[in-house]
Backbone:
């Protein structure tokens, strides 16, 4: 009997195994796992340096078995730039949420992409500031209720959700830009593939890679984990088209 | 790291203070400069943009001062010697990053070629950022070493010293100069030796190969963790205060009136003091080289002998507060300030010295 038992899945070696602090159904824990799998598959765990954001994922270094630095809120790509320029042979990623990347850190986001820094930026878009209580983010949908837009986001006073992939795709230097959605198993598998492509292009020295991941935040969507996946699929994906925007440095129409 | 020498190595060279500072950084082994344009320090990024690529280094004109200081942080976490420079309004923007550097115990060098403030102020020389540099500047319970040069030569040598201090104590070091020192030209001797030795940096992020992952962080939320960390920082600050406090004095043991000044003002006050002595007035000079740690103990000792102290600054009285605290009323204190971009002349200060001498009958 024994020879018929196969291990079909085990915890990725690049994951520490520490119990995660994320809420049930949160997208961060999924992406951490995918990131660890990608580090394993590309054998880069021992030469990867990550930069954690200010936000729910600030403790990413508890879970990922690679060197990691904190950064001030929004400055994550600037810190990643400093790391990559001083250690060009290391694999550097910046892991950021929507407030960090598209509000306070928008200047760093655009200019890092525009310089074509050879780093990978992972953008967790869950439309809210998770750590501080679910406030309105630059990507909050019009009509979506948060503590700082209690009667729903109004376009007339707070504008509309920013589509970051589309914005970055207007620049000449990025090499790879893709948006995926954690909306079920196929979406999760696609996200892993996107992360693999991004890290591979960095390994090959091709330049800036950006993966936006539409991600569930059940706590501040005020939905169950399962309903949150449906919300990502039916609502978020409608405003933020899930597709490849830039491949091999070429914009995809 | 490759150490490239200028052709003029064996001679004296004629340079601006800003260029001397930049060349000092290169000779200190700094290969990473990140900055953003602002007057009156633009010669530094221009010099670095030209020189660093020649030495295999990296120059980036960042999108903002915020990005620049955080690129410094990024290079520093990998163990590299890195710096940025700016002038007063730009330094205000860098304060968040400096607080993170301090919290994460990261070495870095930050040059502030001061201009007038508050706000956009002026582009004229000023010493208005003494409080900001010496009392923290950013949030939290931290210190930075602050060096105050008075000549183009010192702009050069203090920069080399700054990198040594930053690495040895894992602390951000501020060079607090002003537009006058940055823009003026003087002949100087360039540093010809090797860069200061780089201490081992087992904490650096280089990829977790054959060791546990390293973390660079300042968020310490477990019970007692932050308190312990802050006490560690304070222990380091005490050690710096014991070992690195520097000052210069002239006739301090033989004066009735002690002029206390730093940076550009100290340079000019030196001339005024000599002129006063030539006319028979017993005047001395006390000049802190490290503004933090402030050389308070020596000042207290001199103050107990002098009848009066005259503090001269290009602000409304900032070091003045440290002088008052250090001397505790031992001598009568007078102040002469120039807060509007005017640099006092030797005769301006001499006039004030006469006035104080008359009032105190020294």
Residues:
């Amino acid at each position: 009997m024994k020879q018929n038992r196969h291990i079909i899945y085990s915890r990725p070696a690049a994951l520490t195994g520490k119990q995660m602090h994320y809420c049930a159904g949160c997208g961060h824990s999924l992406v951490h796992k995918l990131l660890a799998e990608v580090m394993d598959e590309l054998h880069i765990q021992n030469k990867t340096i990550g930069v954690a954001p200010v936000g729910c994922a600030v403790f990413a270094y508890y879970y990922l078995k690679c060197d990691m630095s904190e950064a001030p809120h929004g400055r994550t790509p600037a810190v990643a730039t400093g790391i990559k320029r001083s250690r060009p042979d290391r694999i550097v990623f910046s892991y950021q949420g929507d407030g960090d990347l598209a509000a306070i850190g928008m200047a760093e986001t655009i200019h890092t992409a525009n310089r074509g820094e050879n780093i990978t930026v992972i953008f967790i878009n869950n439309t809210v500031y998770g750590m501080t209580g679910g406030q309105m983010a630059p990507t909050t949908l019009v009509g979506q209720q948060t503590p700082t837009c209690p009667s729903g986001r109004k376009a007339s006073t707070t504008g509309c959700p920013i589509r970051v992939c589309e914005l970055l795709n207007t620049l000449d230097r990025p090499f790879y830009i893709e948006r995926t959605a954690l909306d079920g198993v196929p979406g999760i598998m696609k996200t892993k593939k996107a992360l693999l492509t991004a890290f591979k292009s960095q390994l090959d020295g091709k330049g800036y890679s950006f993966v936006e991941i539409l991600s569930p935040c059940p706590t501040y969507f005020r939905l169950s984990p399962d309903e949150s996946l449906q919300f990502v699929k039916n609502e978020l994906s409608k405003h933020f088209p899930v597709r490849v925007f830039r491949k091999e440095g070429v914009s995809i129409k | 790291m490759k150490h490239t020498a200028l052709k003029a190595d064996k001679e004296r060279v004629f340079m601006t203070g800003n260029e001397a500072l930049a060349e000092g950084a290169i000779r200190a082994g700094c290969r990473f400069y990140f900055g953003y344009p602002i007057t009156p320090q633009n010669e530094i990024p221009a010099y670095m943009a030209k020189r660093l690529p020649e030495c295999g280094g990296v120059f980036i004109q960042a999108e903002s001062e915020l990005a620049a200081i955080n690129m410094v942080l990024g290079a520093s976490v990998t163990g590299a010697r890195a710096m940025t420079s700016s002038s007063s309004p730009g330094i205000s923007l860098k304060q968040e990053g400096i607080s993170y550097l301090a919290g994460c115990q990261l070495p870095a060098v930050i040059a502030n070629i001061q201009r007038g403030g508050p706000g956009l102020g002026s582009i004229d020389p000023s010493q208005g950022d003494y409080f900001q540099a010496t009392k923290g500047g950013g949030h939290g319970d931290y210190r930075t070493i602050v060096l105050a040069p008075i000549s183009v030569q010192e702009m050069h040598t203090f920069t080399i010293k700054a990198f040594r201090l930053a690495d040895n104590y894992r602390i951000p070091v501020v060079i607090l100069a002003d537009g006058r020192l940055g823009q003026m030209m003087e002949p100087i001797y360039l540093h010809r030796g090797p860069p200061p030795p780089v201490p081992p940096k087992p904490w650096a992020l280089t990829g977790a190969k054959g060791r546990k992952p390293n973390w660079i962080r300042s968020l310490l939320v477990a019970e007692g963790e932050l308190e312990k960390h802050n006490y560690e920082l304070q222990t380091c600050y005490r050690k710096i205060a014991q070992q690195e406090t520097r000052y210069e004095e002239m006739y301090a043991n033989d004066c009735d009136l002690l002029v206390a000044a730093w940076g550009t003002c100290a340079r000019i006050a030196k001339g005024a003091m000599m002129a006063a002595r030539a006319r028979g007035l017993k005047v001395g000079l006390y000049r802190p080289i490290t503004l933090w740690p402030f050389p308070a103990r020596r000042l207290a000792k001199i103050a107990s002998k002098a009848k009066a102290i005259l503090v001269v600054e290009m602000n409304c009285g900032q070091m003045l507060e440290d002088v008052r605290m250090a001397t505790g009323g031992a001598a009568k204190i007078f102040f002469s300030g120039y807060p509007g971009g005017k640099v006092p002349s030797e005769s301006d200060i001499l006039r004030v010295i006469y006035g104080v001498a008359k009032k105190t009958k020294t």
